[in-house]
Amino acid sequence: MSRRIEAVLFDCDGTLVEDVPYNADPGRVRPMPDAAVALRRLREHGLKIGAVTNQSGVARGYLSLAQMGRVHDRVRALLGPFDTWQYCPHSPEDHCGCRKPAPGLVLAAANALQVEPEQSWSSATSAPTSPPRRPQVP
Questions:
Q1: What is the CATH number of the domain that holds 92?
Q2: Residue 60 located in a structural domain
Q3: Catalytic residue among 13, 25, 34, 83
């Protein structure tokens, strides 16, 4: 028996907004074409919306948590509310469990949304020609 999809989780940079590496300036946030329309349609269908985003610029010292927060606030102002927003501030060298493609962000988002991870779809920029996929969980 298949479970109903309850949530859609989006990467932020390059999926919802133009990718500006290590962006610390909310004024440089530009939505991707049709991102607002797509999010609105998903919300209209009763789906929960989340963001799951790697932010290694924090670990690398390119931006502070406060600057990252202001950039994320700008994304929310432009694209509407998100039901959860999860981020990994670590660098790849930290080998943490939250940095995508590890499942930590997806698991945290599912917990915050009160859905099973298998009830969500995720969309990321690592393979732009790939269709949205179910998260890989242990």
A1: 3.40.50.1000
A2: yes
A3: 13
Question: pLDDT grade, residue 137 (50/70/90)?
Answer: very low
Burial of 109 (0-12, 13-18, 19+ CB in 10 A): buried
pLDDT per position as a tens digit, 37-65: 999 999 999 999 999 999 999 999 999 99
Residue 109 lies in a domain: yes
Domain count, the chain: 1
25 an active-site residue?
A: no
- Does 94 participate in catalysis according to the annotation? no
DSSP per-residue string spanning 107-130: HHHHHHHTS-GGGEEEE-SSSTTS
> pTM, whole model, 2 decimals?
0.84
pLDDT in tens, 86-133: 999 999 999 999 999 999 999 999 999 999 988 888 876 544 333 344
Query: Containing domain of residue 97, as a range?
Result: 7-123
- Angstrom distances, CA of residue 39 to CA of 29, 46, 87, 93, 122: 17, 11, 19, 33, 13
